């Protein structure tokens, strides 16, 4: 009965529930017989993900999936988690346009992605500004005629 209570993550306990242990009581004690039991309870509480390789014999462990089906599912998952958008007309995922997608639309994939593209845009603007500032100096240097060509005789 205690193991079933520990495996149920939706089970809520109140202050008057005698089965609920405090965090200090759930720690295994040295040289006690209940140490193994409490460790097992803690491990089953940590196992919250159904369908994992937990050795529990879940319903998903009984179904065998062919390689072709796994490959199809992997491709669908790849398209669903990439920079794509679902197209209702063609019933498939379409990649986002490189030039038409704004930085704010990329924020759907996380704030870090949006900030990265904002940083790239700002750096591009800064380098364009620096290029425009240095362009007159480059042009006057190319148009200058102060030093005549003297061939291979030196700079004097």
Determine the N-to-C terminus distance.
Answer: 101 Å
Protein structure class:
mainly alpha
Spans of at least 5 consecutive residues with low confidence: 1-29, 41-49
Order of helices and strands: HHHHHEEH
Largest sheet: 2 strands, antiparallel
Percent of residues in β-strands: 5-15%
**Could you give the count of β-strands?**
2
Put simply, the count of helices is: 6
Q: Overall pLDDT, averaged?
A: 71
Radius of gyration: 33 Å
Proportion of helical residues: 40-55%
Shape field: elongated
Strands in their spatial order, largest beta sheet: 1-2
How many domains would you count in the coordinates? 3
Walk me through the structure.
This protein has 156 residues and is mainly alpha-helical. It folds into 3 domains: 2-61, no CATH class; 65-95; 105-142. The protein has 6 helices and 2 strands, in the order αααααββα. Strands 1-2 form a two-stranded antiparallel sheet. It is elongated, with a radius of gyration of 33 Å. Residues 1-29 and 41-49 have low confidence and may be disordered. Keywords: Membrane, Transmembrane, Transmembrane helix. Residues 1-64 are annotated as: Disordered. The chain crosses the membrane at residues 115-139. Residues 7-28 have a biased composition (Basic and acidic residues).
Key structural traits:
single chain, 156 residues, mainly alpha, 3 domains, two-stranded antiparallel ribbon
Briefly, what is this?
The protein is mainly α. Helices cover 48% and strands 5% of the residues.
Topology of helices and strands:
Layout: H1 2-7, H2 23-26, H3 34-46, H4 59-62, H5 67-81, E1 84-87, E2 92-95, H6 111-143
Antiparallel strand pairs: 1-2
């Amino acid at each position: 009965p205690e193991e079933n209570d520990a495996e149920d993550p939706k089970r809520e306990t109140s202050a008057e529930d005698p089965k609920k242990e405090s965090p200090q009581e759930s720690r295994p004690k040295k040289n006690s017989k209940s140490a193994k039991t409490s460790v097992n309870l803690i491990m089953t509480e940590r196992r919250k993900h159904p369908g994992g390789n937990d050795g529990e014999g879940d319903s998903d462990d009984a179904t065998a999936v062919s390689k072709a089906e796994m490959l199809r599912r992997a491709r669908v998952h790849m398209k669903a988690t990439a920079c794509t958008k679902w197209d209702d007309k063609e019933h498939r995922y379409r990649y986002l346009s490189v030039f038409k997608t704004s930085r704010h639309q990329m924020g759907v994939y996380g704030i870090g992605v949006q900030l990265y593209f904002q940083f790239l845009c700002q750096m591009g603007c800064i380098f364009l500004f620096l290029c425009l500032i240095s362009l007159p100096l480059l042009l006057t240097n190319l148009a200058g005629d102060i030093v005549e060509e003297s061939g291979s005789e030196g700079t004097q």
